[in-house]
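Thread: Modeling a multi-component assembly for a lab meeting

Hi all, long-time lurker, first post. My supervisor asked me to bring a structural picture of a complex we are working on to next week's group meeting, and I have zero experience with this. I have the sequence lines for every component (881 residues in total). Could someone generate the structure of the whole assembly? Inputs are pasted exactly as I received them:
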Amino acid sequence: MFTLKKWNAVAMWSWDVECDTCAICRVQVMDACLRCQGENKQDDCVVIWGECNHSFHNCCMSLWVKQNNRCPLCQQEWSTQAKGVNFTRLLISEGRWAGEQEV
Amino acid sequence: MAALLKDKGTVTFEEKWPAMRPTVLKLLRQECVTRAEWQDLFWAVHKVCLWDEKGPPKVQKALQDDILDFITHAQARVLDQHEDQALLKAYISEWRKFFQQCNYLPLPFNQLESALAGKTTTSVSKKVHNDDSIVRKLMLDSWNASIFSNIKQRLQDSAMKLVHAERNGEAFDSQLVIGVRESYVNLCSNSVDKLQIYRDNFEKAYIEATKAFYRVKAPQYLEANGVQNYMKYAELKLREEEQRGEKYLESFSGSLQNLNECCVEVLVTTFRDTILAECPTMIKNNETDKLQLMFKLMDRVPEGIQPMLDALEEHIVSAGLADMVAAADTITQDSEQYVEKLLDLFQRFSKLVTEAFNEDPRFLTARDKAYKQVVNDTQVFKLELPSKTKGIGTKTQPESKCPELLANYCDMLLRKTPLSKKLTADEIESKLKDVLLVLKYVSNKDVFMRYHKAHLTRRLVLDTSADSEKEENMVEWLREVGMPADYVNKLARMFQDIKVSEDLNQQFKESIRTTTKSSVADNLNIKILNAGAWARGSDRVVVSLPMELEDFIPEVEDFYRKKHSGRKLQWHHHMSNGTITFANNMGRFDLDVTTFQMAVMFAWNQRTHDKISFDNLRLATELPDPELRRTLWSLVAFPKMKRQVLSMSGEVTSPKEFTENTLFWVNQEFAPIKNGKPQKRGKVNLIGRLQLSTEKSKEEDNEGIVQLRILRTQEAIVKILKMRKKISNAQLQTELVEMLKNMFLPSKKLIKEQLEWLIEHKYMKRDDENINIFIYLA
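Re: Modeling a multi-component assembly
Sure thing. I ran the full set together rather than chain by chain. Output:
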């Protein structure tokens, strides 16, 4: 009686992190860090995970390790486990970004 | 040479003067002097000064006597005239003659000048400037002392009588007055202030006379002709007097300015209050010409403009609000009418300011101030923000619903609606710009932002934008009018996400093309959005999806995880939607539905003709109670639909009245009705306004506005203190309002509470000596 014709599913992605807030800049990791917000570089602000499973803004952490190569939360030696990828950038770099050409 | 030597010792004043005197007298009388006589005079003066030790003072004395004698005669000739014009004429002619001679007579006596100055060499005489010449000074001072001081009163009086006559419209030879003035100007031998005699006498008399004239005339005119005509009169007279002043007064002397001040004083300032009393009525009646005139007059008067500004403000506020109240019934229901009413008011007031006040910045400011009050007024309708927030007990004041309605109006223009279809692209653009114009006056822009974003979310999720280019333009326009960057950036990011999702869909479909699920996948469209930019609450609603869809969820998640490590997905099914085909006794129909509606309807797929209770539907769909109620309500009582998709037992007036046992069944007679006839085919949209949050989080939504304001205020206070270290309460308030104005207008109370909170939490403290000074604590 009722048959499906079309479905538009909506999902939200967020970084798979233990804590929503970057302990270095105190901004939510889903938002760009303050520096990137100010410089309007939101797209480049990704998340970085350490082996300790703690996560921060990549830009915040790269500044942090220059002074102190330990995780600010657990004081373990910092080593990067993974880094978030910006999808838009990825598409642009692969030449598959259609956004700008669309009229 | 021999003759010269022989003369030595014998040249005396007494000997030479008799020969010199006739030439001097001729010069005074402007009679013909031969070249020989002229040169002899030089020679004689030279000799007397050179040989007679006592000569120079004697020459001076003799000269003075002759000058005085000449002046006495001239005075007699002038005073013979009794009639004013003749007197002036005679005086001017005597004066001109005399003044001309002031340039000639001193020349032969150059030698005398240096002799009197105690110098013997003639070479320096060249340096003596004509104007500083002793003889010239002697001549002018003599004239001044005798004739002028005797008859200056009469001269002045006569001249002023002529000016008076001219003011009354009689013509006369203006040269007479001008001549007198020139004599005043030239007469002065004081080289430091050449205009002294002119200023002390002529200018003073002229201004006095002007004042006296209008002191009598102006009140008479006002009495006889009323304020409005009087303004024309005053304006005319001010201009006339300015022109007359240019004619009769010395330019570059400051006289014109003095005259102007006097005229303004006597013509305008005296009647300021009387004139201003007419202002409110004129504004009310939109009498722009008269206001223009009043503006011109009052702009010359100290504190003349302020009352006009007040009147304008009062008019805008009262007329604006009266209009809104009068149209309250329609505009509270209809965003379009409301916004158009506001714009109409704005244009009306702006036109008034343009036509009556030449867009003078002071009047523009008054317009802005008053218009702001109209826009933010809460009389017609208000937005109720919650009175209590978590943690900090806050009672908020009611706020204008304006920002919400502006956002609704924007939505109507940007979405595919009857309104946006009716308008051309240019018309839509100009209307959007209008919205931004009004938005400038809205105090609480954060409310607008919230609603605007919600509408945009719906348009993007449901793909109902009328024009995607316009959508993105709008984002840039919002940036241009100063909306906070983090807000605008999120909007921009939303567009980006939609584009990224399109790409992602392609890839996903390609990836499962080879599998068995590909046929279903063609009907699937996934939007994976950035939670930071889109999400509102973090609420998650459970719903049991139709099997074929449920199967896809892990597929998509796997696919996405491979693409993007470190990201997790959360399904927002309350925003998901789709199209289903409904086949019944009447025909086949396409229904646009929300995922919740879909879940409810699919419950009947296994038991087409059953009646299912509310309770069983809950078990089947797993929807939380409030969501299930709302969804069922939309299926049994969708607004403006004659035949509903579901039927139910009993009658209810709201979703709250459904009980556990209320029964629902599919309406096999469902069909869209067109022109009174049921149709066999058709597409029906049952989505209505897409739900962006759950019932529970909707209440939190408005609290969110308040909560965010608290945070923003704290943040701004700390920012300011960090910069200033030490700041007075008053200045802090000003800077706060400035900093937050693009989001909301912080109330005094809100500021005070946040200050207390920050002090309590040791972010800052009050100065020990002055409690109105705050100090930042790092």
